[in-house]
Design goal:
Structural class: alpha+beta
Shape: globular
CATH class of the domain at 290-514: Alpha Beta
CATH architecture of the domain at 290-514: Roll
Helix content: 25-40%
Strand content: 15-25%
Largest sheet: 11 strands, mixed
Distance between the termini: 29 Å
CATH superfamily of the domain at 290-514: Dipeptide-binding Protein, Domain 3
Number of helices: 18
Number of strands: 19
């Protein structure tokens, strides 16, 4: 169900009231959000599953992070620090090849059954065995189908052991795997009882959650609503608000209307103009957190045109970084041409990480060198992010001056992701969020490609989606990963970023803020670049 941009207040309230009925909650006569629920408006049309082994979208990831605890977690106040979560502590062997996690002894699933280290080891092994996109989170660190049963073990109910094939940086393993959605503890007994044709519960988790965490999924109506309910058997502090109601509202104007009237607590897709206006109002605050998400112009390097690095470089000079930063992206994102996000280990600073300016003449010269003096025609796919269309139009206008004719095609996010993962595109505007505050997080996905064959289906590698493969670059990524001297390791990443800005597979444009308009009645809304914490919010 799609909402109308000019949805009347009565229609909007009826829509929300219907959602409340699903939750078993009731709205007051003025239809304000109920006192025991967090009501959020967000574009959630990209959701396709709740299986931690398979989800890849920002929305699904945020929801799963609030229903399923990870093994360890990022500090809400400082995302570069790791805190205990299901693991109360961990030890590292002297040779760096083994990490032993000691779990809490009070972990339970939502149904009250005891959750053990065996469930967690099975859950991690399951990700690798199923082989969906998120398997890459583990396989890139040596956990593969052939060894995963021996490499991830549970010697007793409270201990999980990782046996590594190489001495990876420990903090990288903690943030990339142990704090990731793949390290959630699923209910092995329930999933195996509901498996279909050996899928280890994959179809079961398409519409459900069954794990250790503060909330559980009660209902999901695609492109309509997600309803979460606080678990009765959570080991940690109970969520302040018992329900979380996420309403699919695709239009920013409708989100703003609902927020201003107090009918929702949080609006997630407001425009820069909305944000500016709302900050001037006394009843609404705006919260921002710079997240490790890069918005970029994605090129299919298998296309004969974009296989030429000079063409890709020319496209970078058709992006009005400064103009867009002052208008469309004001308070939404910061200019960023590097593949490593600000705040990560090894990242170039703001100035070095964005050396480009809009320069049509430079673009034309590069296109002539590439054999396209008269330009060419291409297509750009975009999704429903509120800033995607104006950025696309800005590029389209600049490109036309260089002889490049761009046809823009807008589609639902789910359709866009499907086309990109199938390599069925020429160019697109995309977002990508890494899971770690380290340059390797993006280096290992944006430019490293383990297997470029179509049948390899490495869909969680943007490099693979873009058909980009360079063996020399792969070696550079590995060299930086295993460099023991941290200063030298940072230098290697600096050099790699500069190299990729000249010849890399994508044109990175902005690092995005998480931005939300928040009703003044909400307290303790917490988030950082890697996590949003529903359970701390209160009224």
């Amino acid at each position: 169900m799609k909402t109308n941009k000019f949805l009347s207040r009565s229609s909007a309230l009826a829509l929300l009231a219907g959602t409340a009925a699903i939750a078993g909650a009731t709205f007051a006569s003025e239809a304000a959000s109920p006192p025991n629920a967090l009501v959020m408006a967000w574009n959630i049309d990209a959701i396709s599953t709740f299986d931690p082994a398979q989800i890849g979208e920002v929305v699904s990831n945020e929801i799963i992070q609030n229903t399923c605890d990870p093994l360890v977690d990022f500090d809400p106040k400082d995302e570069t620090k790791i805190l205990p979560r299901m693991a109360k502590s961990w030890d590292v062997s002297e040779d760096g090849l083994q990490i032993t996690f000691h779990l809490r002894d009070d972990l339970k699933f939502d149904n009250g059954e005891k959750a053990t280290a065996g469930d967690l080891a099975w859950s991690l092994q399951r990700v690798v065995k199923l082989g969906f996109g998120n398997a890459a989170t583990l396989t890139e660190y040596g956990f593969v189908k052939e060894n995963v049963d021996a490499a991830i073990t549970a010697p007793d109910d409270h201990t999980v052991v990782f046996k590594l094939d190489k001495p990876y940086p420990v903090n990288l393993i903690l943030s990339a795997i142990a704090a990731n959605r793949v390290a959630t503890m699923l209910n092995q007994k329930v999933l195996m009882a509901n498996q279909v044709e050996g899928d280890m519960g994959n179809k079961y988790l398409a519409t459900r959650t069954d794990c250790v965490g503060p909330y559980k999924l009660m209902r999901w109506n695609p492109a309509e609503v997600v309803l979460l309910q606080a678990s009765d058997n959570y080991w940690g502090e109970a969520p302040k608000l018992k329900q979380v109601l996420i309403r699919h509202v695709s239009e920013a104007g409708t989100q703003r209307l609902l927020l201003e009237k107090g009918d929702i607590d949080i609006a997630r897709d407001l425009t820069p103009e909305d944000l500016k206006d709302l900050e001037a109002q006394d009843k609404v605050t705006v919260s921002r957190a710079l997240k490790p998400t890069l918005f970029y112009w994605n090129f299919n390097n298998a296309d004969p045109i974009f296989n030429n690095e000079k063409v890709r470089l020319a496209m970078r000079y058709l992006i009005d970084y400064d103009g867009l930063a002052k208008t469309v992206m004001h308070n939404v994102g910061v200019p960023r041409a590097s593949f490593v996000q600000l705040g990560a280990f090894g990242a170039l600073d703001e100035k070095e990480g964005q050396p480009f300016t809009l320069d049509v003449d430079k673009a034309k010269a590069l296109l002539a060198e590439a054999g396209h003096p008269d330009g060419f025609e291409t297509t750009m796919f975009i999704g429903t992010a509120p800033y995607a269309a104006p950025i696309a139009q800005s590029i389209q206008d600049a490109a036309a001056k260089a002889g490049v004719k761009i046809k823009i095609e807008r589609m639902a996010n789910a359709q866009l992701f499907s086309r990109i993962r199938g390599r069925e595109f020429q160019t697109s505007l995309m977002g990508w969020a890494t899971a770690v505050p380290d340059a390797h997080g993006n280096a290992s996905r944006q430019i490293f490609n383990p297997d470029n064959r179509m049948e390899a289906k490495q869909t969680m590698y943007p490099s693979w989606r873009a058909s980009y493969f360079d063996e020399a670059v792969n070696k550079e990524v590995d060299a930086a990963l295993f460099e023991k001297d941290e200063a030298k390791r940072a230098e290697l990443y600096h050099a790699l970023q500069k190299e990729m800005m000249e010849k890399g597979p994508q044109a990175y444009m902005f690092q995005i803020y998480n931005v939300a308009g928040i009703n003044k009645g909400i307290s303790n809304w917490e988030w950082n670049g890697f996590r949003t914490y529903y359970d701390t919010a209160s009224k």
